[in-house]
């Protein structure tokens, strides 16, 4: 049984006995035994372990983990300390600089956001080395759909930042008028100029949180 040691245990414990998850678990056991898979199996659920269900004020949805050596550690868009900043995250930093005046840091480690209530959730939580989307369609999407549904049910408002098609596919599960949905293209260099840059999602987010008496996110990542 997976344990998060916070409120997610109450909501997600039943998922691990469902047929789709048992099939996913068997797939992952084989993958981790025979392939190079990211992140480390002990880091798969870090987003949920760090950001308690009751503390979530913002959700940033990614696609699947980074598939390069030493990058992924269970938080969407984040890389471990001392790892070069990936292009998509650099574009996020550029938008933060333009939107809120945050300086661009030299680290891509985003745990500071997670500890403030930003759930950095990928739609798929594992990936084979150097093979983007290699674990899509194996069951993770069902698991992360359930996470979004539980968050949607919450009365306390949440800002959902949906960047790119994978993230925007979850919009159908966000039906409560309590929440704010911000959507645009993915921050990848291939698409960022088509709407991500200039979207001002971070300032819009903080204004919404303030309006609902929820503590703002300090988006500045320190070096």
What does this structure look like?
This protein is an alpha/beta fold. It contains eight helices and six strands; from the N terminus they run H-H-E-H-E-H-H-E-E-H-E-H-E-H.
Give a short synopsis of this structure.
This protein has helices spanning about 10, 20-35, 45-50, 85-100, 110-115, 140-150, 165-170, 200-210; strands at about 35-40, 60, 120, 125-130, 160-165, 180-185. The chain has about 220 residues and is an alpha/beta fold. The longest helix has 16 residues, at about 20-35.
State the main characteristics.
single chain, 223 residues, alpha/beta, four-stranded parallel beta sheet, two-stranded antiparallel ribbon, 33% helix, globular
Strand percent estimate: 5-15%
Rounded mean pLDDT score: 96
Unreliable runs:
none
| Net shape | globular
Sheet/helix structural class: alpha/beta
Q: Give the terminus-to-terminus CA distance.
A: 37 Å
Major sheet description = 4 strands, parallel
Question: Which secondary structure elements does this structure contain, and how are they paired or packed?
Answer:
Elements: H1 8-12, H2 19-34, E1 37-38, H3 46-50, E2 58-62, H4 87-100, H5 111-115, E3 118-122, E4 127-128, H6 140-152, E5 159-163, H7 165-168, E6 180-184, H8 201-211
Parallel strand pairs: 2-3, 2-5, 5-6
Antiparallel strand pairs: 1-4
């Amino acid at each position: 049984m997976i344990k998060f040691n916070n409120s997610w245990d109450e909501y997600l414990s039943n998922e691990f006995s469902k047929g789709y998850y048992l099939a996913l678990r068997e797939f992952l056991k084989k993958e981790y035994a025979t392939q190079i898979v990211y992140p480390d199996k002990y880091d798969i659920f870090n987003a949920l372990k760090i950001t308690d269900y009751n503390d979530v004020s913002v959700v940033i949805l990614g696609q699947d983990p980074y598939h390069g050596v030493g990058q992924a550690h269970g938080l969407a868009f984040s890389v471990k300390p001392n790892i070069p900043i990936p292009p998509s995250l650099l574009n996020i930093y550029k938008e933060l600089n333009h939107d809120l005046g945050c300086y661009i840091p030299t680290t891509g480690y985003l745990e500071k956001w997670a500890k403030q209530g930003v759930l950095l959730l990928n739609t798929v939580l594992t990936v084979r080395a150097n093979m983007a989307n290699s674990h899509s369609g194996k069951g993770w999407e069902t698991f992360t759909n359930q996470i979004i549904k539980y968050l949607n049910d919450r009365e306390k408002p949440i800002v959902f930042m949906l960047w790119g098609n994978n993230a925007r596919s979850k919009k159908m599960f966000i039906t409560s008028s309590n929440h704010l949905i911000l959507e645009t293209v993915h921050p990848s260099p291939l698409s960022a100029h088509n709407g991500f840059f200039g979207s001002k999602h971070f300032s819009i987010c903080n204004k919404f949180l303030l309006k609902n008496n929820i503590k703002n996110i300090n988006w500045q990542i320190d070096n």
